[in-house]
């Protein structure tokens, strides 16, 4: 996986052609729901793209095939080097699929199959199959290829406690308090947005052991953490724009705030530099 900083005038289509991967692969790698990107945004670029073979049947069109496999007509044209949108029965098309970084297998739908029978066969659920394949209905087509999860992502064995949201709280601050990521906190609580309500009760992990060295052990007796100039993230912000605003670098911001990714949350408080 490599990274790319979006330049003025860039589009997802242009970036996908530049790196030879599909738009969907880039969107999934960066958890992007729309085609909108902004200058300075840091994108993860998958370094490998795989494909499956589809044999054109009567009544097929590039649009219907793209819709069936959750891709675009432009991607099909690109990956197959097509000069026209006309198709012939029996023609073989490569269908782009994202890099296999998850635990799943590919299953080809047969006559008589339904999501319930497939889910039972592979010891999973209908919802998990629909989520993994971005399905909005339970309808299947013969020869449709589905990704089937092969390993359930169970919650950790440790117990969970609760946290009651107070005035001024945000997901980032709570996640840091319990040494987890915002995404993990949202997953644990089935949250669909970053909005919180005062009095809302969240499930948070309880540490079973704490082998981390204390600050005193790391820095010596009498160490006092310095004060920092801070910045509260607003809508539209990204690390690149914040770094430029304060004449620093993205790398410094990542290091100073111990960030594990370049994703930011509205209301997140970033350390910029030590106060003089």
Write the layout of secondary structure elements.
Elements: E1 2-5, H1 12-19, H2 23-29, E2 42-45, E3 50-55, H3 62-68, H4 73-80, E4 92-97, E5 104-108, H5 115-121, H6 126-133, E6 145-149, E7 160-164, H7 171-177, H8 182-188, E8 201-205, H9 215-219, E9 228-232, H10 239-245, H11 250-256, E10 269-274
Antiparallel strand pairs: 1-2, 3-4, 5-6, 7-8, 9-10
Helix pairs in contact: 3-4, 7-8
Radius of gyration: 23 Å
Amount of helix: 25-40%
The computed structural class is alpha+beta
**Major β-sheet, in short?**
2 strands, antiparallel
- How widely separated are the two ends? 38 Å
Overall body shape: flat
Q: Any idea what the CATH architecture of the largest domain is?
A: Roll
Describe, in short, the structure shown:
This protein folds into four domains: 1-100, LysM domain (Membrane-bound Lytic Murein Transglycosylase D, Chain A), CATH 3.10.350; 102-153, LysM domain (Membrane-bound Lytic Murein Transglycosylase D, Chain A, Roll); 160-205, LysM domain (Membrane-bound Lytic Murein Transglycosylase D, Chain A), CATH 3.10.350; 226-274, LysM domain (Membrane-bound Lytic Murein Transglycosylase D, Chain A). Helix content is 28%, strand content 18%. It has eleven helices and ten strands.
């Amino acid at each position: 996986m490599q990274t790319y900083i979006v330049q003025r005038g860039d589009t997802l289509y242009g970036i996908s052609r530049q790196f030879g991967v599909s738009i969907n692969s880039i969107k999934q790698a960066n958890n992007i729901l729309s085609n909108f990107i902004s200058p300075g945004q840091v994108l993860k670029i998958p370094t490998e793209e795989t494909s499956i073979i589809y044999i054109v049947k009567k009544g097929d069109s590039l649009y219907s095939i793209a819709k069936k496999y959750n891709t675009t007509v432009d991607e099909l044209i690109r990956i197959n080097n097509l000069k026209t949108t006309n198709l012939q029965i029996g023609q073989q098309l490569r269908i782009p699929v994202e890099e296999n970084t998850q635990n799943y297998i590919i299953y080809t739908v047969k006559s008589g199959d339904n999501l319930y029978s497939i889910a039972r066969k592979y010891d999973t659920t209908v919802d998990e199959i629909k989520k993994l394949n971005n399905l909005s209905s339970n309808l299947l087509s013969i020869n449709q290829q589905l990704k089937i999860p092969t390993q359930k992502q169970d919650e950790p064995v440790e117990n969970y406690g609760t946290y009651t949201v107070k005035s001024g709280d945000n997901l980032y601050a709570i996640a840091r308090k319990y040494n987890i990521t915002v995404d993990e906190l949202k997953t644990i609580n089935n949250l669909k947005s970053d909005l919180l309500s005062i009095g809302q009760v969240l499930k948070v992990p309880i540490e079973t052991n704490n082998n981390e060295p204390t600050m005193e052990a790391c820095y010596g007796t009498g160490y006092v953490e310095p004060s920092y100039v801070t910045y509260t993230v607003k809508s539209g912000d990204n690390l690149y724009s914040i770094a430029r605003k304060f004449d620093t670098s993205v790398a410094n911001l990542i290091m100073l705030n111990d960030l594990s990714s370049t994703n930011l949350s509205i209301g997140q408080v970033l350390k910029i530099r030590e106060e003089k």
